[in-house]
């Protein structure tokens, strides 16, 4: 059984979908801890499912590296097989990436390598493209530059706003994430850097 630690910053909609999938007896992975870099709304999903949570507030540390050391200490306490970044709006320090790579994956609301970074949906709209997408990647030291595990196109519709487009991307992201975790757990998908 693949064990997962999930890291979030916000409402945790992808986390909830993963928790629901993992609650089925035949799903080959279990979420064992959920962490956040702030007092995130999404921690309530973990509590509802009886999953332990931890918070490592980014603003409580003098540097990203200090924050990363405490985050790694929290993760080490759980010894997850896989770390899932699901809406974590922080770049992991290189030492954290090195410590756990390649067993860190991330969801991203764009068809990478198009529109990396924190504003993938906004950037797609600003570029006037006809389609964008969702991607699941292995984390590396870059910004959304790691190996792509899964991705799917999502059309940009006339009149789309950042909110409406993101609302159409999220279900695709959730489906891709659940499928990728399942395939990693069964050995059908191998992680590499």
Highlighted features:
single chain, 193 residues, alpha/beta, 37% helix, 22% strand
Plain-language structure description:
This protein is an alpha/beta fold and 193 residues long. The protein has one domain (2-186): Formyl transferase, N-terminal domain (Rossmann fold). The chain is built from 6 helices and 7 strands, in the order E-H-E-H-E-H-E-H-E-H-E-E-H. The chain has a 7-stranded mixed beta sheet, with helices on both faces. Strand 1, helix 1 and strand 2 form a beta-alpha-beta unit. Helix 1 (13-22) runs parallel beside helix 6 and helix 3 runs parallel beside helix 4 (94-100). The chain is globular and about 45 Å long.
Q: Percentage of helical residues?
A: 25-40%
Which CATH-level-2 architecture? Answer: 3-Layer(aba) Sandwich
User: What is CATH's topology name?
Assistant: Rossmann fold
- Coarse morphology: globular
Strand content: 15-25%
CATH class wording: Alpha Beta
Largest sheet: 7 strands, mixed
Could you tell me the radius of gyration in angstroms?
16 Å
Strand arrangement within the widest β-sheet reads 3-2-1-4-5-6-7
Mean pLDDT: 96
User: What is the SS-derived class?
Assistant: alpha/beta
> What's the number of helices?
6
Count the strands?
Answer: 7
Given as residue ranges, the uncertain stretches (5+ residues, pLDDT < 50) are: none
Number of domains: 1
**Could you give me the name of the CATH homologous superfamily?**
Formyl transferase, N-terminal domain
Order of helices and strands: EHEHEHEHEHEEH
Distance between the termini: 23 Å
Concise account of the structure shown:
With 193 residues, this protein is of the alpha/beta class. Helix content is 37%, strand content 22%.
């Amino acid at each position: 059984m693949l064990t997962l630690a999930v890291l979030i910053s916000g409402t945790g909609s992808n986390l909830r979908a993963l928790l629901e999938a993992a609650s089925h007896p035949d799903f080959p992975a279990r979420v064992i801890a959920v962490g956040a870099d702030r007092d995130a709304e999404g921690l309530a999903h973990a509590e509802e499912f009886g999953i332990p949570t931890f918070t490592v507030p980014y603003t409580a540390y003098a540097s990203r590296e200090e924050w990363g050391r405490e985050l790694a200490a929290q993760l080490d306490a759980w010894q997850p097989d896989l770390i899932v970044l699901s809406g974590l709006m922080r770049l992991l320090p290189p030492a954290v990436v090195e410590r756990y790579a390649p067993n860190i994956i991330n969801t991203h609301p764009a068809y990478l390598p198009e529109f990396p970074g924190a504003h993938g949906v906004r950037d797609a709209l600003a570029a006037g493209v006809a389609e964008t997408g969702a991607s699941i990647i292995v984390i590396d030291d870059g910004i959304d530059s790691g190996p792509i595990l899964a991705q799917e196109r999502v059309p940009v519709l006339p009149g789309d706003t950042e909110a409406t487009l993101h609302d159409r991307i999220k279900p695709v992201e959730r489906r891709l994430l659940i499928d990728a975790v399942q395939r990693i757990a069964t050995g059908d998908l191998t992680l590499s850097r």
